[in-house]
Structures are given as structure tokens and as C-alpha cells.
Amino acid sequence: MSESGTERPRTETWPYFRTPLAAYLLVMLPIGTLMAFLLTVSGTPVWMKISSAAVLAMSLFGLLHGYGRRLVLHASGARFVRLSGRIEIAWEEVGRFGVYAPGGHAGGPKYIFITRRDRRPAGSWEIDESTIQIQYRDRVMESIRAALGPAAAAKEDKPEAVERTLAAP
After folding, report:
1. How far apart are CA 65 and CA 82, in angstroms?
2. pTM of the prediction?
3. Pairing mode, if any, of strands 70-74 and 12-15?
4. One digit per residue, pLDDT tens: the chain, 169 residues?
């Protein structure tokens, strides 16, 4: 129990990408194997070797971008771990959290954000010292609500459709 009387979550961690690592590898390993084969076989045209190297580089970037970066929720706050360092936001510093679709596209990918600001992020690229984001999962939202306890209701960002419904006379 914390000082506020609410139960803080145990340490939980999620990768930036929602897709399970096994599914990503199931798709990318055969492609990577073919690209590596094309790079090493003599007689492969230069343009094809360059293309194969580019595909391998993008696959590696995707792996590091999606699974090397992680959200860690712990008793004192949220941490976003990345190759170049980490971002820490204490639960007491959270200004807003919620779910949104960058660009407002219905049916597009949804992201969960935790920020010190009193607004949702401008887009999925806005990850900085004040804002953490990962692709949406129900379980993450439940953990954030549990960690914030009674303060969660006031800090949760409501989607526009909910806000319009609540504002209607």
C-alpha cells in the first residue's frame, strides 16, 4: 500500500510494438535469410546487393525500434527505456494519460500516452522528457489506472467522441 492508500502495481514491462516478438520474427527471419543469401552469393547484381542490404538494415531498425524500446511501470512511476537512455515520469507528475489515434483516423493504430503536459501528444513521434508512448494494449491502461488510483479519473484523456457526448445538453 502506498501513502495514499492505493495499491501500487508490481513492475510490469511492455515493448513499444504491440505485435508479439515471435510474430515479427516469423515474418522477418525468412526475409532476412533471403537478403543475407543474396548479399553473400557471388554473381548477384550490385543493385540487388544494395537493395538486400537496405532491407536487412530496415529489418534490424524495426526490431530495435519496436522491441529494444520498452515501457516499464513500477511503484514510483513510468519509465521509457531506449537505446539512448531513458525517460522517467513519477506518478505524481502525470498531467494526462490516455489512448488516441495519431491524426484522428478511425480504425488507425492507437497509442497509449503518459505525459506531464495537460494535453495529448501531437503524434506518435512525440516521445520526449515529458511524454511516453507505446502502441495500445488493454492491460497497460488497466495498470496505469491502478497506479494512479483515485487521481486516474481526473487525469485520463477522453477521446473526442466521449467529450462531445458529455458536452451535449
Report:
1. 8
2. 0.77
3. antiparallel
4. 444 445 555 789 999 999 899 999 999 999 999 999 999 999 999 999 999 999 999 999 999 999 999 999 999 999 999 988 999 999 999 999 999 888 766 677 889 999 999 888 988 889 999 999 999 988 999 999 999 888 888 888 876 544 443 344 4
